[in-house]
Amino acid sequence: MMKLVLAALLGAAFTMPAAAQTAPAATAPATTAPAATPAPAAAEDDADDDAPAATPTAAPAAAASVQHHDFGPSGIMVRSNREDLAPLTLASGKPVAEAEYLLKSGGYYRIRIKADGSQELALSGGDFFRAVWVNEVIVNDIEIRPMGVHSIEFDAAGEAEISFVAIVPGRYTLSVPGSSGATQQAVFTIQ
Question: Are 101 and 112 in contact (CB under 8 A)?
């Protein structure tokens, strides 16, 4: 008989919703809040989009009792956290970068690479690309989300944009292959 009572109590405990087990007991009758209207799919937050972000609507009252956990910097890719770096220039006889770049590990960055078409030029830097997580490369409004990058080459005039998160601290370079001059490289220091 005792086993039947214990089984009935355990069965009742396991069939209770999880929210009911953690939510405090309500003293007043619950009111139903209007449901939040979902944002259209086109208004989703694209981390590299320059359009203003849509304003969130009010959350239902039931969400107030949900317990949230801190799993780290989940907002790392939000537009407000992104920093635009000075552009890199690929032109015959001109410096690639104006100065060194100082980055913070965990920082979200975007950099433009502009080529004037005066010569077929590339930027190579496998060590740099292994020290960052590349979110996307945009060329002619085509978004590419690569697993890895080693170099970017321009055969003609054009522009590319790379967004990335700096990860591994150290000093890295993106340089024009075959060049030895200090002006033919961009130096990135990740702290």
Answer: no
